[in-house]
Amino acid sequence: MSTLRRPLATLLVESAAGDRSGEHLPANLDARQLLKAGRMHRVLPALRRRLHGCPEASEWMPILDAQRHQQLLRHMQAGHDLGRVARAFATAGVRWAVSKGPVLSDTVWPHPDMREYTDVDVFVHPADFAPALASLEASGFCLVDRNWPEMRRLSRAEMAMSGPSGFPLDLHWDIAVTPRARSTFRIDLPEMLERTELITLGTGVTVPVFDPGDLLLHVAFHAAQNGANRLVWIADVLHAALNPAVDWQRFAADALRTRVATPVSMVLERVERTFDVVLPTPPKLRAVAASLSGRAARLRDASRPFPGLPDDPGLSGLEFSSARDSALGSLGSALWQWADVRRIEAQVRRSGTAANPLDEDIPDAAARRAYLNAVREAAPVTAS
Fold this sequence. Notes:
Layout: H1 7-17, H2 31-40, H3 44-51, H4 61-92, E1 96-99, H5 101-107, E2 120-124, H6 129-138, E3 142-143, H7 148-154, E4 158-162, E5 168-172, H8 179-184, H9 189-194, E6 197-200, E7 206-209, H10 212-225, H11 231-241, H12 248-257, H13 261-275, H14 283-286, H15 292-303, H16 318-321, H17 327-351, H18 365-378
Parallel strand pairs: 2-5
Antiparallel strand pairs: 1-2, 3-4, 4-5, 6-7
């Protein structure tokens, strides 16, 4: 039996949808809880647009105006640094695309001041990763992940950097970050890079981006991998899915071929339940959501409709992050993730929160070469 969504959660959903701006608010809203929930779901700029013009919200607007202002400043920083990226990669001949953050803000969400983001994600062809990294370092970007032996050991497909403006940039050579994820999911980044489109962001910089179907696949997969437990990620998928240029048949075929169909279909269903929409999901993809993980997600949303609020129990979204194409695979992933969380919690209880070992400055040239060679070897071999 379905449970009604709570008024505060409903207000958050309206904010992320981008409608009902200025309409009257539910009675007895607690300002502290409102801001706490908006911050948790990363929708404070969108919440500000929803509340703008509401007499009941006048005392909250200075805080929300400041959040919007901070996001616009971050947007300007991102644009500045992406200009540097574009020039550096053009000179080095790097195949690349920027995704999420500024792309979603300027081209996907209803208004560019709604989508909160705090970093830029840049994806490069694995064969071009070494020259991409070198060209960024020569253009004023700094490594945040500086522990090369640890980078080699972990073999993550993501490197944290900081741009000339100080804005964080994550440089990726695969959509799936960890070796475990890459062994399960087979998203073909080089193929996606062959389909990129050029757009000009609101900051005036022109960058390549994934085509509408690939962008939808990326944001849906990203949401699932992170537990689909933040409203901003579910809204990303909503707004990307509403683009009439999405080729849904190709989207479904790609999801099935790359083994992401189960988590992606579950996220699409959560979008439909959250925003009361019906997406044109092809039947072959919709059927996958009836998996064990998909049924668990349906039951959770029926008992307590998404989005959850800060003091709610069970917000991890394990049923999404562990979803695999088979029930056995999903169960194994869930147990592994559960055990990993317990291990980290035990370590924190013993020693406190540990520093990120990747932040240690260990400029091991041999480890750097080994890591970059491994990335190059991960690139698909193209026919001559």
